[in-house]
Structures are given as C-alpha cells and as structure tokens.
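Q: Could you predict the 3D structure of GPSM1 protein?
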Amino acid sequence: RTIGDRIGEAKASGNLGNTLKILGQFDEAVVCCQRHLDISQEQGDKVGEARALYNIGNVYHAKGKHLSWTMAQDPGYLPQEVKETLQKASEYYERNLSLVKELGDRAAQGRAYGNLGNTQYLLGNFSEAIAFHKERLAIAKEFGDKAAERRAYSNLGNAHIFLGRFDISAEYYKKTLQLSRQLKDQAVEAQACYSLGNTYTLLQDYERAIEYHLKHLVIAQELGDR
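A: Sure. Here are the predicted structure tokens for GPSM1 protein:
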C-alpha cells in the first residue's frame, strides 16, 4: 500500500484470505478475498480475478462443510444456512470456470469442475455432481494427472450410490482401487476396498463384499490404523 503496488496488495489480501480460511475465520476470509477480487477487476488483471473467484468459492465451500459437520447431516438434507453457503460456493466456482475458459486455462478448469462436483454432491444434486466430475475426469486424463483421476472416480462412485446405481458405483470404485495401487497409496486403497465392500453389500453380493472388507481390514492392520 505504501508504495502504491495495487497488484501486490491484491495478492497479499488473497493470501490473507486463504490463511484465515484455514484458521476457520470464514467471514474475515471472504472480506480479504473480496478485496483481492475488487483490486484485480479494477486493474484489469483477469488471472488475479479468476484466482480470487476461486478462492472465495473455496472459503464458502470450507464454511459449508464446516457447518454441515457441526450439524451432522446426510448429503441432500441440509439446514438452510448450509445450503445457502454451498450455493454461494457454487456460484463463485461457476464464475471462475467461465473466466478460466476465456483464458484457456485447462488445469484451472479441471479444478473448478472438481469443486463444482463436490459442492453439488453436498447439496444433494447428484446428477449435476456426476456431470461436473466427468468433466474433471476428462481433464485429469488430458494432463495425465493420476491423483486427480483417482479422486474423480471416487467421487463418481459416491454420487452414483445416491442415485441407486450401485453397479456403476462398483465400476468406478474398481478404477479408484486400480489407480490407488498404481499410486502406491495404501490409505486410499483401503478406502476403495471399504467402498467396494459396502457397494457389494447393497448389490447383495455378500461373498464379494466380504472379500473387499477383508482386504480393507488387512491394509488397516498393516497401517496400524485402529
């Protein structure tokens, strides 16, 4: 501010916002991120504007998750305050998405699609969540980003469960399992086995359910995860 560096001030405000978000001070975080947005728009800094929109989305997303944990609800059965907060997150992600499309930033589009999928899932809009996660998946594959691909499969599996499409969920969870093994991520591998166990229980294929739950158990024991 002293040297009149507006772009520097915008970035600093954004960093403050992100830090306050991590500290759980969501309302103060929004104020700082909004300042980042305002200055970026004033300076015609499209990249900064896109980043600020994304950050504000993240603050509302984190606040919505925090509120829904404290009120412990199933996806889709949300108190009004949680719903409004997640809808705001979604709006900012949408604005971010249209701007990064304009800028031709595919990686940023991938992040926006993933977060839109997650907010729609929490809102109980499972078909919308699936559409967004499929976009996320396509971009992850484009970039050869295995970790993002794995997350997309997992999220697609979760959303199909709520639509009662257990067979499709099982296929997505198997892909999650495959990738978690490629990535040598045992905790995620265990989680995928757990999800497959539950899905096969829903499909009333109890033999396979037992098989996957045993795999889950073995990894949990190996990891010493009580």
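Q: Anything worth pointing out?
A: The chain has a mean pLDDT of 95.
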